[in-house]
Amino acid sequence: MLRDITTIVFDVLGTLVDEPGGLRSAVEEAGGSPRDSDELLGVWQRHVEGEQRRIARGERDYVDSGILDREAATRVAQTAGITDAAAIDRLATATQRLPTWPDSRDGVARLAARFRVLGLSNANPESLHALGEHAGLPWHGALSADTVEAYKPSPRVYRLAVEEAGGDPERVLMVAAHAWDLRGAAAVGMRTAYVPRPAGDPPADNDAFDGRFTSLAELADALG
C-alpha cells in the first residue's frame, strides 16, 4: 500500500510535538492560573486559527506565525491579567519550546535512516528552526509555510514539500495527526498516513488515507 516512498513529510505542531500541552505550560509559566489554563489555551488557539482562516479568505494580508503568536500571547495576557512584559515576550515564543511526544525522536530517527524526512509546518522559519533544535528531531530538513505565504491546508504549502522532494507526489508520504492536514496533502496527490495524538483531528468514516497507524514505531515497521 505504501510502496515506492522516497520522502516522508511530517506535520510538526501536534504530530511531532505536543502543541496544546506545551502552550498550556507556557501560559502557566507566564503567570496564568492553572485552573484557567484550558480557557487561556482556547484564547490562543481561537485567535491563531481564526486569523489563519481570515488570511486564507483574503480578509487579512498574510503575516507569519510569529506575528500571530505575539497577538495570541497578548490576548492571553489581557485575559489572565498578566502584565509582566518579559513574561509576555517569552510566552509569544512558546511554540519554539514545545515538548515532543514520547515516540517522536525514535520514530523520526528510524525513518530518517531509510528515507528523506522533512518537517512541514505553519510555523515561521525562525520558530521552526528553534523548535527543531529544542526538540532534538533528527529530520533532514524542515519547510515553513511562510515560504509560500500561505497556511495549511493551502495547496501551495503541500506543493512546496512535493517540489522539495523531487516533484512526484506519489512518492511523498504526509504523516499527520490531523485529518484536515492529510486531506490537504491528498488533494495535491501526496500519499497519506494518519497517526493519532491526544489533541489531533481523527479521520471521518469516509477518509481514505493510505495508512492508519497507532504510533510512529508501527509506521516505521510498516515501511520497513
Would you kindly provide a written description of the structure presented here, covering whatever features stand out?
With 224 residues, this protein is an alpha/beta fold. The chain is 46% helix and 12% strand. The protein contains 9 helices and 6 strands. The protein has helices at residues 19-30, 37-56, 65-80, 85-92, 104-112, 125-135, 155-164, 179-187, 216-223, and strands at residues 7-11, 116-121, 141-144, 172-176, 191-194, 211-212. Strands 3-2-1-4-5-6 form a 6-stranded parallel beta sheet, with helices on both faces. Helix 6 links the parallel strand 2 (116-121) and strand 3 (141-144). Helix 1 crosses helix 2. It is globular, with a radius of gyration of 17 Å. The mean pLDDT is 97.
Which secondary structure elements does this structure contain, and how are they paired or packed?
Layout: E1 7-11, H1 19-30, H2 37-56, H3 65-80, H4 85-92, H5 104-112, E2 116-121, H6 125-135, E3 141-144, H7 155-164, E4 172-176, H8 179-187, E5 191-194, E6 211-212, H9 216-223
Helix pairs in contact: 1-2, 1-4, 2-3, 3-4, 5-9
Parts with pLDDT < 50 across at least 5 consecutive residues = none
Any idea what the shape is?
globular
**Share of β-strand residues:** 5-15%
By DSSP (H or I, 4+ residues per run), the number of helices equals 9
Assembly type of the chains comes to single chain
